[in-house]
Amino acid sequence: MNSDVSSTRKFDPGLGIHFDPQGFQFTYDADVFGPPNAELRRLDAIRASLQDPQCSGPDPVYAIAMGVGRSEHEAELKRRILLYGVVAYAKGRLGNGPVRSQGHIHAVAPHCGWSTPELVEIWEGKAIVYLQKVVADDPEYCVAIEAGPGDLVVIPPSWAHCIINADQEREMVFGAFCDREYAFVYDEVRRRGGLAWFAKYGSDNKIEWIPNPAYSTSTLTVRSARKYPEFRLNGERAIYEQFAIDPDRLQWVSEPAIYEKLWENFQP
Fold first, then answer.
1. DSSP secondary structure string for all residues of the chain
2. Angle CA 62–173–86, to nearest 5
3. Would strands 105-106 and 184-185 be described as parallel, antiparallel, or unpaired?
4. Above 60 in pLDDT, residue 4?
5. Is residue 117 reached through a cis peptide bond, with omega within 30 degrees of 0 on the bond before it?
6. What's the whole-number average pLDDT of the chain?
7. How many CB atoms lie within 10 A of CB 247?
8. 83-93, pLDDT tens digit by residue?
9. Does 59 reside within a domain?
């Protein structure tokens, strides 16, 4: 893990949402809406994407609260077909690997005809966002992006991806803007027993990367999170605050055709 990525940096996401690791649920301030009970993703649900499908580990693996925000913005989010969600990952390990999500691709949203992008913002802990351009024998381009509190990662349309808790000693929490008609496609990833690269802990407890033999030889780029000036994002301000100030700035999440030319050669 990049030593520049600190899991203890202070970051204010601009929302009164709090994760309780004991109850593995979220609570909300009075002016914030959200589901009363988070959806809990169990270990059995993600085994098909893991290097060791029979491993043991924390269960539930992560908690998801989709459709959160300040009450004053609820109607505007719906009008723009945008959805904000927050996800918390358990600490610990899945076998000899880190706690992580399933690998998936975003389904095509009926309203726009695109596999929609996602904008991820790390709130707490250390994360790695792993992405590959396609799920095929040659995945074309694979990248693992290391991110800490306040860092952003743009997940492009149609790219397969998973998100990893890169610190086994503490929980990891992130928020994300996505399309309101979101859905996930898992079939091809599961058929290949996961994505093209697996993260595991080495003898020094540092994360190493192991290629999945179900794919042809591929290379993996590991790097830190970057800024995204091409999307007019302000790296010094939480993404929810950016939406509150200028909702048009995030409209590309549910209308990716706004940046159609940019996506052609985009690298996260």
1. --TT--SS-----SS-EEEETTTTEEEE-TTEE--SSPEEEPHHHHGGGSSSTT----SS-EEEEES-EEGGGHHHHHHTTEEEEEEEEPSSEETTEE-B---BEEPEETTTTEE--EEEEEEES-EEEEEES-SSSS---EEEEEE-TT-EEEE-TT-EEEEEE--TTS-EEEEEEEETT--EE-HHHHHTTS-SEEEEE-TTS-EEEEE-TTS----EEEEE----GGGT--TTS-HHHHHHH-GGGGGGGT-GGGGHHHHHT---
2. 75
3. antiparallel
4. no
5. no
6. 94
7. 15
8. 999 999 999 99
9. yes
3-state secondary structure string across 196-238:
CEEEEECCCCCEEEEECCCCCCCCEEEEECCCCHHHCCCCCCC
Count CB atoms within 10 A of the CB of residue 105.
Answer: 22
128 in a structural domain: yes
Report whether 176 contacts 121 (CB < 8 A).
yes
Tokens of 178: 């996505």
Instruction: State CA 175 to chain mean position distance.
Output: 8
SS3 of 176-191 = EEEECCCCEECHHHHH
Name the domain count of the chain: 1
Find the CATH number of the domain harbouring 37: 2.60.120.10
pLDDT interval class at 5 (50, 70, 90): low
Is 73 inside a domain boundary?
A: yes
Query: The sheet that has 152-155: what strands, in order across it?
Result: 39-41, 62-66, 82-89, 172-179, 118-124, 152-155
Tokens of 32: 């914030």
Q: Radius of gyration of the chain from Cα atoms?
A: 17
Burial 22-45 (b: 16+ CB within 10 A, else e): eebbbebeeebebeeebeebebee
pTM: 0.94
